[in-house]
Amino acid sequence: MYVKTKSGRQIELPTDEEDIAINAGIVADADAVELSDEAFKKLRPVGRPKAEVTKERITIRLSPDVLEYFRAGGKGWQTRMDEALKEYVISHQ
Predict the structure, then answer these.
(1) Rounded distance, CA 64 to CA 17, Å?
(2) Among residues 37, 43, 52, 78, which is most buried (max CB within 10 A)?
(3) Cα(33)–Cα(20) distance, rounded to whole angstroms?
């Protein structure tokens, strides 16, 4: 059986027989431990913490020379562009 993800990828799920074999292998492995509900609750989330102030995703058209200038600075060009726009807003209030 195939399942389609949000991104459009198709993933093949194991058959019932394959699932039984997989679970038997897990049970036979002494290092495989199933977490209790209590232990599961103690796990910390993985990844970057949520920001207090989030940015809004938009689509914008910019001149090629403007993009080239900011991208030439390497990684973090979008953050630098955001900072430049913030400076503009402050200086034009």
Answers:
(1) 56
(2) 78
(3) 17
Torsion angle of C-alpha atoms 82, 58, 53, 65, degrees rounded to 10: -10
By the 8 A CB rule, do 12 and 1 touch?
Answer: yes
85 vs 16, 52, 59, 64, 70, CA distance in Å? 56, 20, 15, 17, 12
Contact criterion met (CB below 8 Å) for 11 and 5? yes
φ/ψ of 83, rounded to 5, equals: -65, -40
Predicted TM-score (pTM) of this structure: 0.49
pLDDT-derived band at 51, boundaries 50, 70, 90: confident
